[in-house]
Amino acid sequence: MNQIQIPQQKLLRRHFLKLSGLSSVSLLLGGCGTPLFEDIVGKVSEPLNQKVETLIFNPEKLAPEFPISEIEPEALIVNSFNFTPKIDSTKFRLVVDGTVNKFLSLSMTEIQQMPLASMVIRHVCVEGWAAIVQWGGVRLRDIINLAQPKPEAKYVYFKSADGYYESWDLASCMHPQTLMAYQKNGQPLPIDNGAPLRLASPIKLGYKQSKWVTNIILSDRLLPVKGYWEDQGYEWYAGL
Amino acid sequence: MKSLSRLPRQAIAAKIFHWVNIVSLFIMLTSGLQIYNANPVFGGRAGWHIPPIFTLGGWLAGGRHWHFAAMWLFSLNLVFYGVYILVTRRWKHRFVSDKDIKALKLSQNQKRRAYAWHRIAYTAIVPILLLAIFSGLGMYKPAQFSWIVDCFGDWQALRIVHFTTVPIVIIFATIHALLGRKVGGDRLLESMFW
């Protein structure tokens, strides 16, 4: 899985947080406003939380959809971790590999010839806000099925043109409302929102929904490198 | 009111409940305010932020770690206590009843009246704690429990309700402590913990 880059600043930030945690030992006794062993608390509680999240996740249950009139175009905030890559969609290729029987390299034309799925759903951000938005695109499971995953495939990695990376459990990728979207609110997907192709789903928090996806890699295991935000301490499953 | 003049004694389960509740609630409130700061309910990013001295977790992910760890402590404590008061039938004689309402209407005995108010106050905390859990569950898993979001109308209403439980819990816990002190003095207050 050497295709996945580990951005340098990730380590710097983690390091910085650790240092700030150490330097605030005096604050620990004084009161709050401190991390107060949040990383340990996360490591201890996450396995339990993740078990419960996986248990209550129903792969067939559809998240609520809304009428077009309820779309909130202004509410969807653009969050990017680094920069906005400009991609020539005529030369763009979505590469699917890893534990699959069939290696794929799809052009946008080929992707747009696949059945279009459209949904008006609630996009929920880890920060607490939410926005009702329409996404149109191809179901991720259609792409995965096209690549014929091997039986041992359990996880899916996503690599983006801006260096962002993510990983999902396969079951959530096969959910009927998990899309590789190229439409937003009835229009071609804007560059800021991830054009030409992005992940979109109402069953995961926003940071799981990579923009500018260029590479989908199926895997039999979860690597120590899980995702840009996860590697800094955010929870991995992040199901809704 | 003779019992009040004796040294008050509490069941060990009531003491454990009070301890776990106050500690877990403190973590829930402070880590919740840390999460709030990522995008204030009123005004979004431009809105008013909670001063860091009241927050726990250091950053959004840290706040979430504390919040979703303490939620088990907080909600299971409430469940165990609920089972306890059902099994021991405490709910019949330890929480507000029509006798307290009658006392407030008819009694001139100030102590009896304070006692009635106190029972109203701590009984009212229970549904607020349940509302905090219910609205929180809706925000935590809006796809799996979309019906909870629907109960509140929309996302913003759900956020407001969940956030509003913070000041309400603080106000009611303060009233509970003050009235408890008025009814039974420091000894009653201390008996609930030690």
From TrEMBL, chain A:
Residues 84-221 form the Oxidoreductase molybdopterin-binding domain. Gene3D superfamilies: Oxidoreductase, molybdopterin-binding domain. Transmembrane segments: none annotated. InterPro entries: OxRdtase_Mopterin-bd_dom, OxRdtase_Mopterin-bd_sf, TAT_signal. PROSITE patterns: TAT. This is Molybdopterin-dependent oxidoreductase. It comes from Scytonema millei VB511283.
Automatic annotation (TrEMBL), chain B:
Residues 10-193 form the Cytochrome b561 bacterial/Ni-hydrogenase domain. It comes from the Bacteria. Its main location: membrane. It is a multi-pass membrane protein. It is found in: Cell membrane. GO terms for molecular function: electron transfer activity; heme binding. The chain crosses the membrane at residues 12-36, 66-87, 120-140, 160-179. Pfam families: Ni_hydr_CYTB. GO terms for biological process: respiratory electron transport chain. Keywords: Cell membrane, Membrane, Transmembrane, Transmembrane helix. One of its GO terms (cellular component) is plasma membrane. Gene3D superfamilies: Transmembrane di-heme cytochromes, Chain C. InterPro entries: Cyt_b561_bac/Ni-Hgenase, Di-haem_cyt_TM, Hydrogenase_cytochrome. PANTHER family: CYTOCHROME YDHU-RELATED, NI/FE-HYDROGENASE 1 B-TYPE CYTOCHROME SUBUNIT. This is Cytochrome b/b6 domain-containing protein. It comes from Scytonema millei VB511283. The lineage of its organism: Bacteria, Bacillati, Cyanobacteriota, Cyanophyceae, Nostocales.
